[in-house]
Structures are given as structure tokens and as C-alpha cells.
Design brief:
By secondary structure, the chain is α/β, with parallel strands linked by helices. It has one domain: Rossmann fold, CATH 3.40.50.300. The protein is built from 8 helices and 10 strands.
Length: about 290
């Protein structure tokens, strides 16, 4: 399609040291790419680089798709924000309209469309802090879709969610794909990785394989275990090692957290979903 995202020799990290080491990757345009690997393998750091909130210390990133939308896990969102679900989703339009301007009729129709698509119509008037974790995650996904960005980035959006909320994540990714959006999401879940069009495997900050998900997971010995696990340890305390072994030693990160390495500068931020410190579609929040 000619608008793929390309990374060449990307090195990036934090004050404690580099996390990504010479990453080369091509992320297909208009397709869903799953990033898989152990905790600390560099998935979240790679998302931060793609989002423009962490600048590489060396290497190049060719990202021709404009300002991305970044969806974090619902647990990263302060649960006491005094806003409704509708207001949360409407924030997705701020990058286009500016937070100080009233939404147009078209904007409001678009917000309604995303509320309906994610099954949030009946919850539109509810405050965000009254929702379950899965419902909050659906609101964040709807906000990102409302931004109409051409690049959608998600950091383990299905982690520790119930079946209904996980189905909403799948709906959001399918909608984005149908609209020609380039999607990149980090996941520990084999079934989610297999739903993608493309897969990139990371080990200790290096790309070890990339291509068709089934082939990538098979090469890593990860294609035969049971699907449906969300992370190494879920809320019930049960353990699953589907896409999380062995543990890497690189420092874990989340998009936009931690300090960039000295000399690194950030580019224009993404349409950040309810998180601080980035020019975004949202109200500022505290750490």
C-alpha cells in the first residue's frame, strides 16, 4: 500500500540503559500487527517510539501516517476522573477540533457511532469512575477510534479483561482494519496474536522473527498451547506462560513512562488516551 511504517537500526531506552537494540521492522499499512515477547522484551518501548513519546538514540523511524492514537491499559487511567463515558469518547475529537471548540454535528454523530460499535450506548451518561475495568477499556478504545487516526497503537489492551471486554477489543481492531488503519498492538495472548495479519517477535530488545503470525509463533514454539490467556499471571492468580517466557532482563516500560535516555528528544505526541504529559485529545491527569 506504500504507507507502511519502517524502523531501521532503532536503539532506544531510558536512563538505566537501552531497551531496544538495533530494531529493524516493517509494519504493513492498513493491517494489524501483533508485537509478542516476554515481559521486558521491549514491546512497550517500541510502542513509545512509534507513538513519538520516546525518541530513539540512533536509527530511523519512517512513520508517514500522521499523529497516532495510543491506547494504554485501563489500569493506567486514574479511576476518579469526573467525566462521563460520552465525554471520554468525545475527547477523541480534540486532536481534530481542539479542546476549546464545540463539537460539530458530524463530531457528535461520530462519537455516537463509536459508542454503539463498542456496546457503550447504554453507558454513555455514566461516569467513568463507576465502570468496571473492562468497561473503561472499551471507553478508551472508543475514544481512540473516534480520533480517526491512521495509526492505532495499543499496549496489551486485553490484559486481565473478561470475555465481553476482550470481544470489544477484537471489535475495535476489526473496525480499524476495515477502515484501513494501521494497527500495532502488544500482546501476551496467543489467540490475539493469531488474529493479526502480521506478527513481530521481540527478545531482549531485538526482533527475532517477523511475518505470518502462525509461522512466527510456531518458530518460537508458541503455537500449540491453549488460547485465551491474557498474561503471565491473571487476576485470579493462575499462571500461563504462553507468550511470556523466559523473562528478559531489560527494564520494563509503558508508553510514555520513565525517562528517555540522555540526548533523546520526543517528537509530537500521539492522540494519547487519558494519560499525562503529551499534547493529546484529553484533559491532563496526575501521575
Amino acid at each position: 500500500m506504500g504507507a507502511e511504517v519502517r524502523l531501521a537500526g532503532v536503539v532506544a531506552g531510558y536512563e538505566s540503559g537501552p531497551v531496544l537494540h538495533g530494531v529493524d521492522a516493517v509494519l504493513p499499512a492498513g493491517r494489524v500487527t501483533a508485537l509478542v515477547g516476554a515481559n521486558g522484551s521491549g514491546k512497550s518501548t517500541l510502542l513509545s517510539v512509534l507513538a513519538g513519546v520516546l525518541a530513539p538514540t540512533s536509527g530511523t523511524v519512517l512513520q508517514p501516517l500522521g499523529r497516532p492514537a495510543l491506547v494504554v491499559q485501563h489500569s493506567a487511567v486514574p479511576p476518579t476522573l469526573p467525566i462521563t463515558v460520552r465525554e471520554t469518547v468525545a475527547m477523541g475529537r480534540w486532536a481534530k477540533r481542539g479542546w476549546w471548540r464545540r463539537l460539530t454535528r458530524d463530531d457528535r454523530a461520530l462519537v455516537d457511532e463509536e459508542l454503539t460499535a463498542l456496546g457503550l450506548g447504554a453507558l454513555a451518561g455514566r461516569r467513568l469512575d463507576t465502570l468496571s475495568g473492562g468497561q473503561r477499556q472499551r471507553a478508551l478504545l472508543a475514544q481512540a477510534l473516534a480520533a480517526r487516526s491512521r495509526l492505532l497503537l495499543l499496549d496489551e489492551p486485553g490484559t486481565a479483561l473478561d470475555a465481553e471486554a476482550r470481544a470489544a477489543v477484537h471489535t475495535a481492531l476489526d473496525l480499524a482494519r476495515e477502515r484501513g488503519v494501521t494497527v500495532v498492538h502488544a500482546t501476551h495472548d496467543r489467540a490475539d496474536a493469531l488474529r493479526a495479519d502480521h506478527c513481530v517477535a521481540l527478545t531482549a530488545g531485538r526482533v527475532t522473527d517477523a511475518g505470518v503470525p502462525e509461522a512466527v509463533l510456531r518458530a518460537a514454539g508458541l503455537s500449540s498451547a491453549s488460547p485465551g490467556a491474557t498474561d503471565a499471571t491473571d487476576r485470579s492468580g493462575s499462571s500461563d506462560t504462553s507468550l511470556t517466557e523466559p523473562r528478559a532482563t531489560d527494564p520494563p516500560s509503558r508508553p510514555g513512562t520513565g525517562s528517555p535516555r540522555r540526548g533523546a528528544t520526543s517528537s509530537a505526541g500521539p492522540n494519547r488516551v487519558l494519560t499525562p504529559d503529551v499534547p493529546s485529545t484529553t484533559l491532563p491527569t496526575s501521575r
